[in-house]
Amino acid sequence: MALPMLPGNSVNRNLGKEKFHKSQHFDYCNGVSMLVGAEKPGIGGEALPGQSARRNCSLLPRGEDSAAPSWVAFDKQVLCFDAYFQESVAQSREETYRVRKCKIYFYLEDDTIQVVEPELKNSGLPQGTLIHRHRIPLPAPNDDQFYNLHHFNIDQEIVLYSRTFVITACDAFTCNFLRKVGVRVRPPAATPTDPYSKLRQELEESMKPLRPYERLDTLKQFLDHDRNVLRFYCFWDDTQSMFGDPRELLLHYFLADDTIEIREVIYPNSGRDAVPKFLKRGKLPKHSPIPKRQPGEITNHTVLNVFGPMGQGGRYILDSLKTGAVQEEFYKDCDLTIGGVVNVWGRRVIVCDCDDFTKEYYRSKYGIEDFTPVQFKAPSPTKVARQVPPYTGFGSEEDSLCSCQGLLPKPPQKDFRKLMEKDRQGLESNVLRFMGKMQSDSPVNKERTFIISFYLSDDTITMFEPTQRNSGVIGGKFLERSRVKKPGQELFKSEMSEYYKAQDLYVGATLIINNQPFQLVECDEYALNYMEQHSEEFPMANIGTILSKLKSIPDEKHKEIKQFLALSDPSNTGFIPYESFRSLLADAHAGLSEHETMTLARSYAAREQAEPDVGIMLAIAQDHLRRKHFESFSDMLRAFTHEDRDRTGHLSTKEVQVICKAFRLPLAGDLLRALLQKFENESGRIDYHAFLSGINWRENPSPPLLPDDALKFDIDWNGEAVSPEVKSINYSVLLEDVFVIVDKCTNG
Q: Is the pLDDT of residue 481 over 90?
């Protein structure tokens, strides 16, 4: 009974199908039209009636725990079998068949097979890869199928293209893999012996060459010790011969070929010609001089007999017993020791010393530890000091000294390294500036002030006198840049004069320049910081040295110091004024100079950081913008408003910096960052309306900036003010560092 035509009972088989392509069944092969798609599927890839789908990959399934296909899971996994096949040989008296051994490789990823025969020496057969890697079909009538894993086992015959191979063994990986897939692996089978190969082996073993081969292999020694040379310092006493004298030699022993080379050490003005070599490189015989030999008497091989013509085409037989061979002994590395004598063609050469490589070589190979050198040189005479004539007064002392050191005068050498290290580098000037007062009985000269600059690059000094109104003295350059000699030195002498150095300049020091004394009363902040940072070079700025001087104060002074501090600080705040501290150290007789007192005060000072004045910063910024004629403030306001999407009137610092850079605002980067920092709120955002209003010199001009105010407000563009003067000293910390430690040491 037929089913009713209800939904779901349709007879249309194409419902649900998505592929309707048809395979190509006809094609041209060698110019002939023929059916080539007998094994191809039908419409949509479905198999035709009576047709079975063919495998295109490995028979093995993908792993249970892996989603990778077989060509990935079994990549680089190969089964290896040992096999042989028998080949008949026609028209040969020595053999009727031949057994040829080979290797069969089965690739698990795609069931391909490769057959390789190992190459044998002088086989006369084309060996190597017999069958290239590909899938091999089964013999007829199953030639539509291919060999797979289950066709291989030990002691089993397989036919590959009408050639029968017998599998005899397999490797450990193959045996383990076959057992895992359920194949019972048979025990290894024996390979039959090839009669012809056995016959050739017997002939080779019974063969004796007419000319025995003597192998002299020196390649290994060359490769191991190439460019390895032992160096010995030697001595040859040639004083017994006429006009002879002691000779120093260098002996080089080449480990690559056991050869020796000797070179002579020739000093300047020795009267000898600089010959390239004392002994040419070669093997050095121990017993020399030796009797002269005829050509061909000393050879590497001993010839027993010669057949045929001489030269090309002749034959000879070597004497394995080496009858009549001349044996010579040559020096080896084991014969060269410190203190030993080497016979160099009748000359007794004493080995006195060697280099570090030679010592390490003998220590590692022969275990020698004693390398005491042999003294062969007489002690050098004391060098007589060269008498230098006194300075004549012409030119500089260095120039006059160079004219006495050679026939061709050379300019004096400068300390180039010091010049490069201490020369000006950016903002680092490497110049120490001091303020000095002239010491004189004249009331006019007492009031004169000088700026003394010391250049660390070449130890030169310059002096400049600032102009003072109504002083009656014309200011300007007082001393040209030059080195200044210390006072009290003789002018015309043979020794070099002493010059002022950087360590001689400090606050409180007295310099005598051109017979006029000057006292240093002040120095700038850079000089103080430089001397404190390089305290190992400047003892006057070394806080450790200063504290050690304070610790040496007698105990009787301790009570007086504490009473003075109590009177100076009635509120017990721990701080006293600088002038009181200075007078205290002067009365304590601690031997501190004015510069040491300043260094100590700077170390224990109570510094108050002054906030930078925003008004002066804006005045400086407006002055820069006015000079550069910058007036694009309205355009910047539109750009700020465009970036302010929420119309809050605030932008981030990065956004403001980007807009200022886009408009090429002619302000230094450090000054711009300091200004933006002053307009930041608590959330780190900037009020750009206030910022533009502050720098707009057209609408909101700032009061004119006076030069004195600009010099007084010396600002660091990082936003921190320069350290002010020392006004108060934290004496409580100083007492703990000095007197408390002294009391502990005394009580202990």
A: yes
